[in-house]
Amino acid sequence: MSGLLSSIAGAFRAPGPRQPRYIGAEDAALIDGWLMGGDDKGAFSLDQLMELAGLSVAQAVAKLYPLGPKLDKDPNGVKQKRTNERVLVCCGPGNQGGDGLVAARHLYHFGYSPSVFYPKNTPSAPQRLKKQCENLGLPLIAPPSSGASSFPMAPDAQDVAFRRAIENTDVVLDCVFGFSFKPPARAPFKTVLDELAKTSKPVLSVDIPSGWDVDEGDRDKTGFTPDALLSLTAPKKGVRAFVESGGKQCVSLSLVFHLARTDSRVCALPSAASSAGASSPSAFPPPPPLPSREHEHTADPRAPPRRAAPSPTSSSSTCQSTRPTGAKLSTLRGARSEASVRLARGA
Ligand SMILES: NC(=O)C1=CN([C@@H]2O[C@H](COP(=O)(O)OP(=O)(O)OC[C@H]3O[C@@H](n4cnc5c(N)ncnc54)[C@H](O)[C@@H]3O)[C@@H](O)[C@H]2O)[C@H](O)CC1
Ligand SMILES: [K+]
Question: Name one GO cellular component term (predicted).
Fold first, then answer.
């Protein structure tokens, strides 16, 4: 486990063009378990991890699909829509769906007008996150939570509502399935994935394009290729071809350097050395130099130190494109920049 954590962080510190460490579904689940484990492990709560993931998602949207300037009302006094303002957040039944609910909340505060599609509203769903979206008045397409009385819905009501929602959005956020998806998709998500494949709207996929196999990519020929991808912590093996063929990719770094720092401490402990079967602590290579705490919050760990402390609006994700565009390729390969998003709504 310690080698895995170091290699993920090391991939982002290595000089030259980034060579990300791709991880499989098993390793992704292992890291998740480690982050949430107590004792000598990460000690994060699920809520914290979702909040970090969801904030990174919202920041990636702000970076890739920036909100246009505010426009004056039209002659009839009607508010005019800003570029990229409407974001349809498609949420699945697992933790990735929770990331989506968090992202919708942050997007609202960034000034976007998100709406949320949440078709699997089971008792185990993150009801508090959903309630927070409701409290902001976000349009929510979801069946009533169990126990609530309602009129019976037509079987295809959600499909119809989803199709209408996708027509009336500027950007689609794919938070349907993450690293625990096992193809093929079951209802009601089959329709959702078909619509994602068909739409001409830009889709930003979180962690893995939904419907793709986490390790093997679009093995089942879904026909869905997102406009861009946000990898959480480390890119998954299934997106290697997408990234290497020039797909737009962001990587959320919020946990990477935390993993590396904790890991270097674990490596330094004699007990960790003996439990790993090493004859002495020196059997572990010295941990690579860690970036300063300041850099942990910036997009580029190798960036020169800042003079002032990072603002709360600085991004925890870094974006790059490797799209092969001839002469621009080398500059793009190393390109990365820091998102700066305004957190106060309407500011
Ligand atoms: N450490 C991190 O990087 C964190 C990532 N997070 C996000 O969580 C997901 C992984 O969450 P998990 O709940 O394990 O899995 P999924 O979101 O993929 O959803 C599982 C969910 O889906 C159902 N399901 C599986 N296959 C199918 C299918 N073929 N048809 C229908 N339904 C299916 C399954 O039954 C479950 O209910 C990760 O990718 C990140 O986005 C966390 O926020 C924490 C930190
Ligand atoms: K996804």
Answer: mitochondrion
